């Protein structure tokens, strides 16, 4: 080999190994002492563009996004993250990594969050690097990608929940692309045009199915980095997908890569997995087994599984079985510390045959799993609709007059202390917390002087738990989710409805008048103001515990704390009239 070519080869090899553009003096020292010949070789490499056309094309890496909870994957997501799903005996994320290795891509980063410990073994088995996203429960994958921005350089972006029949990483890529299929998808927000561009479309229109996989060429990296930085600074983008960083005006600024719909499948739901591999081990979850046993059906008869967004503490899903629809309630993470499921079951036994609650088919007092019949043509109470509120307050009053009894009591002040203990020494985010707590607890003296009749009280009588059913000639109302129900002053339910609805004082007074049909004494009203203050602190402490677990309630949490302070002041001023 001629000396010039030898130098050229050695210089290029060194650059590739180092993975950065080196100084001439470094290469001179390592390669050859003849500076003139070295300059000739160096000049040839860079003026011909061989550094860019070779090194930057060869150096590729991958970022796998695996932090999300995968809420649509109920009931499987209660047991493992989506990347760990098995198809034909092979985990999704392992298949992706093997396909990357087959394409000689060894620099792999996995952004993890939900059940992140389950991915730890990948570091030893496949030598990948894990990046932990602590905000996985409150952010979408745009934020996950932002945590790996320093690693963007000829990079494949891959969601962990895709199954690829063919290996797309074997093909040489000289430009950026975003993968779509030739299938039509109502949930897509892009559509392929004749110029092979991905144009943004309104929600009312269907587009090409988006896979979530992309190749980002180094020429586009700085632009994408800048877009991501700008997007994550705005809280409005907390729920944004990473693809938003590819948007410019009315289209993506990188072209499309179209694949056949049969060559790639995104596993978003239980039924997606069943369609892909009906014998997958993950189809045999506890929830499905319970449904099969209780309803005496085969797992294949459980269809149309859909996540229900409602609820602050539980993961519930809707399903259909033999032409009937049901709701399966799976207790959320950490709720075993907050709720006594045996007490909840006792409440449902007491409510049976009273035509008050949801129709429970099955409840487990140990695990908290619950199956209830779905109420057709029902809507939750709208706290801003006067007719809805009037109907629900009349229903609530009738329930209270039933004077039902159970064997357990809900102590508001003990529960406030209980939630505080769950913080395990973490100080409150509110600097005046101890002062506010002392003031709120001082209301106990006034309440102890009131003549209070205890009966079964819902405790969580919020608008979302009142279902107005229009199924037949006569409208009916059902009150659901009795997890906190216990013996208490039933008027506490009025306060709970008000603070969840974030009512102002005028709306709260109107609610009280609606419940009492205009016959509420002033001292009774002051008592309810006390409950608003106490309940505000209770749920504020609950929110602080959830925040420690990584679940933020932001505006709701702040509102509860403000109720505690504002209504303490209002109640204490009025209490002076009764001393």
Automatic annotation (TrEMBL):
It comes from the Bacteria. One of its GO terms (biological process) is phosphatidylethanolamine biosynthetic process. It comes from Mitsuokella multacida. Keywords: Kinase, Transferase. This is Choline kinase. The keyword Metal-binding does not apply. GO terms for cellular component: cytoplasm. PANTHER family: CHOLINE/ETHANOALAMINE KINASE (PTHR22603), ETHANOLAMINE KINASE (PTHR22603:SF66). InterPro entries: Kinase-like_dom_sf, MobA-like_NTP_Trfase, Nucleotide-diphossugar_trans. Residues 62-162 form the MobA-like NTP transferase domain. It holds the Pfam family Choline_kinase. One of its GO terms (molecular function) is ethanolamine kinase activity.
